[in-house]
Design a protein that fits this description.
Blueprint (H helix, E strand, L loop, with lengths): L1 H17 L3 H16 L6 E8 L3 E8 L4 E9 L2 E2 L3 E4 L7 H5 L4
Antiparallel strand pairs: 1-2, 2-3, 3-4, 3-5
Length: 102
Amino acid sequence: MMAGLGLSGCQTVSKAKDSMSSESKSKLLAKRTAFSIGLDESQFTITDVEKGFLRTDFRVRANNGNQYRCYMTGALIVSSDVLCSKNGEQSCNALLKAAGKC
């Protein structure tokens, strides 16, 4: 009986994980990236997306020539804000700024 309950729980988690379409994930990534780098979504392109188990790494090329390395973490249906560092500059994202590290 307990094994059946455990498997049922796994199916629920699996359905929740897959409930967000690839297009929705891309839009969320673009929206959060825009906020992180201070540009409109139409002013940059996301490339080189590498999806890991808990982290998605990607690069951003802005229309003005600036380039960024970014990532977003998450599990199931919960995800973090996007954190980006401009290429050629000291890594100083919102969390480091808030901690007074840069």
